[in-house]
Amino acid sequence: ETGVTQSPTHLIKTRGQQVTLRCSSQSGHNTVSWYQQALGQGPQFIFQYYREEENGRGNFPPRFSGLQFPNYSSELNVNALELDDSALYLCASSNRRGSQFFGPGTRLTVL
Amino acid sequence: AQTVTQSQPEMSVQEAETVTLSCTYDTSESNYYLFWYKQPPSRQMILVIRQEAYKQQNATENRFSVNFQKAAKSFSLKISDSQLGDTAMYFCAFKIWGDSNYQLIWGAGTKLIIKP
Q: What residues in B contact A6, CB-CB < 8 Å?
């Protein structure tokens, strides 16, 4: 059974640029959730996708957007990057009511 | 709104000792899940243990067990016979059962250091 994978591992961007982060869900899971974790803090929920549709959203601006594909993999897109977007971005997959299992994360640095 | 509070920013114990991490939460819901996740320096978030609120029996996974007090809204994690590999950030998290938005709500974490 393949676990949750994320790419890239690390990424450096400059203010104003756009970034796309990718997540492959665990086999058998149809739900993907994205979280932002600033250094020294707990994760903050960005949004969740269930069967290719957004299923809920946290307190993040519209420049954070996402997609889920028919194979349940997912992308997180962030436009007009700001310095405060520097964080670890975590992807978790689950069945809709099940426990969430996390990928290794993508460390984004915005300069 | 639901909140999760971890009041111990950092704890340190000797290898083989038992340690208990505290977590309290606030909700008006009656059906929910509670979780403990571990995040070692490698940063991968790992599920340690899960508790369904409707279950009176405390969950146990090998050396890890919880003390779930629903009336007090308390959910502590006990690690027995601690090992060096248990060194990590530990996060308590909460999820409502049956809500259309199945997000996890997280505490701020407790940094646990196991000393040799």
A: none
